[in-house]
Amino acid sequence: MKKIIVAIDGFSSCGKSTIAKALAKYAGYTYVDTGAMYRAVALYMLRHEITEQTDIINTLTRVQIGFALQTDGTQHTTLNGEDVEAHIRTLEVGNKASQISQIKEVRAFLVNQQQAMGSAKGIVMDGRDIATVVFPDAELKLFLTARPEVRAQRRYDELIAKGEHPDYNDVLRDVNDRDYRDTHRTESPLRQAEDAIVIDNSDMTREQQMEHIYSLFNKATI
Ligand code: DC
Fold first, then answer.
1. C-beta separation of 10 from 145 below 8 A
2. Is the pTM of this model over 0.90?
3. In a domain, 222, yes or no
4. Is the CB of 151 inside a 6 Å radius of any atom of ligand 1?
5. What is the pLDDT of residue 163?
6. Which of 62, 69, 78, 213 is deepest in the core (most CB within 10 A)?
7. Mean of pLDDT over the chain
């Protein structure tokens, strides 16, 4: 069985990272969450109160991102050697990540590192530009999507489970706004690679979806 690169892109709240992690485990591959890398850069800039674009660009050389494997098999993102996993998942960091991800130099800085991580193949990487920019030659490219109403409901349920009291219509509006921003930004907008396999998981169970993806993976590695 040959080792390949799996590129997974798609809209927010499609379950990309859950799917990517499950596939990496199934394949015995390394999983790379590129969103976490944008979030780690954002955290550094927030902590050091760096807001100007030129300052952000000039500070990038001081940002070192890594992934530390935990004993339970999960990975934690590190920033200059510190485990920042718990700090990068907040709304504030997510918003900052969304801003800094529009800067061409930030993208180039991270894309370089992502390409180096895939040089030995055997990798599952998820994000917004993996099949279009980072690995245009990836052997398996998946583009995940689901109807906005379905994604909004999933996010709504997650927030309720966290003890929050969101309004469904606000959540749906947020999903639509994010889709618009992701697909309309100038730098590497989210778009489907021509040779990507589209998976709309609106009406699929997780099991059905994984079965489909495992079978695509098995075919791609023959
Ligand atoms: O997937 P996420 O929510 O963790 O991503 C955080 C932000 O980074 C989000 O605004 C999109 C951006 N991002 C990106 O521009 N390119 C990627 N490859 C991954 C994430």
1. yes
2. yes
3. no
4. no
5. 92
6. 213
7. 95
